[in-house]
């Protein structure tokens, strides 16, 4: 394309939307075992089902196939009672409901049940394509009904010219059913039939029929979910449009068990396109892809596409320049973008580079020896004849100065400022450092954006503008073979300027964004400036944005794109309005001039954006956007089917999908994570121990520590000393002084000299209120730093940077890590008289390497007072529990499997159990009996011990696959746990002694990760990452209640007061929800954004109550284990001969 653009040609893209053909229906006919319905105008055949069908709220074991284009769930009445009189009194799946005729011998109705693997696989693909976010689509049974060459009865006559062929496939799974409706375009020739001598459009939809009334008094008409309307356009759309990604194919979820809310349509309305390429010999003319002619009403014929000249004119002016060019040897032409006039058709455009003044930044023309530090720690530096370049290491991608691990999710944080006028308002809405947060799952291209503190005066009107944060979608879009997303090409430092022109009002908005690279938390930083006017969207209105495609064009320092985007506003009064806007943008970036970085990148790439979701949350003053992004060819063709390129692979969000032959693939945990690829856990990142000061080399006046990559280093003795670098001997008088000052010493001298008079008669001293760092004897930063004037102290790392959450109040001193030794477990405070927790209840939650706490004020989280109470460097803390008697925190680590505890009062830590552990993921404390229980998801067992880790005993080691959460109810003697085994998830209960084990919940579970028990209401609640629901059950009456659905990925949950608090892997947050109405009431986002794991409540005093083991250990010699109505004395597995086992009942 670049060569053509610089000479005489340009490519014209001819896009043809391919409809469904008869050959693409599911196989049907006698040869595949179909039965044939009797010919007639109202024939019916009963079909006994081999598997239950779920329809609305009911379950059905038989269906009835009818000539008139439907399947019914009960024996249908005569056609005179439902044709033209819908909704009918019986349940119905109406694929094409009308008065149809098969009496002339040319039309047939075929039907069968099918469980063959190839049919079920194809069914699963249709459903997965329509519902790309749904996992584990595994149909086990299908009903296939095909109406072939059926005619409209009475109007055309036998042998008439109008015939229709269509098909419905009902797919059944263990707890859900789906309907797939298929309409081959060239075989749909009529859309109405004669009913009572009137021409009436056919109907398509799902009718529930009569349902029992309240208290079983009589019956009422159920729901009629109608797909078509009484219009020709609506009927034509059956073969031309889609909700599953393929024209003529429509997918709906029609029933679920045990709970059903509504018929759910497929989510993918983007149409597959096929592109042909033709050369056009015009240098400055822009040629667009053409749209097929509108279909003939009621009859849709496939026509060949003809080329025509595009109705576009070149731009008269170039995009706004960024500065003067500093590279005289750059190419003479670039592409010019023209604002498009048609929404569906990407353009290839030319721009004359002479009209652009682009400031191309350059690398320092030096060598790697003096510039290697400017490369990412995950990059290699490479020397060239006239300079150097940085290149990301294998397993990472970026521009070499910014590199991130393949497969790892990415976050973007920033601020939004500026002003926007809304509608005709004479006064703007001001933005002043509003928070912008974005998150993208890089292995499937899903991006989420949220902007906070958006007042209701402008919130609804921002809904059409996901462009405010969509740059991260382009930067980390799912890459198709041989194509690269933005970050892999230009890294994270660039500027972006965009202009939005709304139609028809011509309102204009300018968006300027500065991307500042990846910070120390691996977040991409951005600042945004807004200026202009946007159309008003009324309060209460919602916005739907249509999928779009946008062509990005690349040169050595500039990327540009343009598109037209359509959106629909659903007004509060029920009316619908369609609008659009024109979008142009320029992205300026730095490239390495010593290697042709862009040589392997196509000059033009297409960004495809679909599944767009927008919402203004007036209660929290948040505007939210979500979308799915792919980067690939500008030429449409057969879509890639490998799950790595569709995004439907099931790999962990911290894993990279590796494609293989055909549809085969593998999941590989991203760098910094470990696991099987389906589930990945965070591991320790590479650490520069020399810089951090955590090496074991000798003192710096005798030895040098040299970082060699990853987490490795070497020690070597300085001149005048001998040894292995870890122990150096020699005459220290030869080196009385260090030749170079350390960073801490330079920092200290600068602070002391900041207010000095400069004369040599005065010793430098700091200004009043000036902070002066403390350095140790070797010039390193002291781990504890204090500000004398402010009276505050905090911990710093080896670079002198404050450790978040470590700053103590005046008069208090936190415990800090000594950088000169390997990091120990660090408790919350060094003195028994300093309590790090706020009086009252607190939430404890874990992230990798630490446990934080959030004080609670009643049911409200005091977010400003959240801080870290326990640092566990290099560990992955999963489970967290609390003993209210001794005020101790218990936690589990899975890197070197262990269970530990620390007292909140003295900061002392104890390793309790470190042997015979696989993966301890859940801990429960019986504070009354002084026992601890835990689950092990690798050894597949549940164990118990005393709180000090002694007297271990295996409670269960059978019928467990993936046990995780475990809860003790010491007052009543019960133990609860869940097993998230994907093939058979369940929630179980037993006595605390292991007696009376029983399954409480087994139906309707997916991944029940989180479990909690409220002793006040006696309710057991769980959060399910598979069904994305929070539910509760009374363990005694077995009454079950759904609190909410649509949550993200819960890991752990705890109950306190009227709220449930849970940690969420997708949101990296602690979320509070009301346990009475299921509404989310609050969210806490930790300063360090990484996965949140276990969660627990600390009580200022224990809840009242005793059990049979509370006093004198129940008289047992070893373990006293309560149960309902008694207790059991049990021996540990390692017996010493003095143990006596006995049961006591009361």
Description:
It is globular and about 110 Å long. With 1146 residues, it is mainly β. An 11-stranded mixed barrel has the order 27-28-29-39-38-35-36-37-31-32-33. Strands 2, 7, 8, 9, 10, 11, 18 and 19 form an 8-stranded antiparallel β-sheet that branches. A 6-stranded antiparallel β-sheet has the order 3-4-5-6-14-17, with no helix packed on it. A hairpin with a 6-residue loop joins strand 64 and strand 65 (998-1001).
Strand order of the largest sheet: 27-28-29-39-38-35-36-37-31-32-33
Please report the number of helical segments: 9
Average pLDDT metric: 79
Look at the helices and sheets and give the structural class.
Answer: mainly beta
- Major sheet, described briefly? 11 strands, mixed, barrel
> Which regions have little confidence, pLDDT < 50, spanning 5+ residues?
1-17, 156-160, 273-365, 732-739, 755-767, 818-838
Shape, per Cα inertia axes: globular
Give the CA-CA distance, first to last residue: 87 Å
Name the helicity range.
under 10%
* Total DSSP E strands: 77
Radius of gyration from the alpha-carbon trace, in angstroms: 34 Å
- Strand fraction: 35-45%
Domain Nidogen G2 beta-barrel: 408-641
Domain Thyroglobulin type-1: 741-816
GO molecular function, one term: Wnt receptor activity
Keywords: Basement membrane, Calcium, Cell adhesion, Disulfide bond, EGF-like domain, Extracellular matrix, Glycoprotein, Repeat, Secreted, Signal
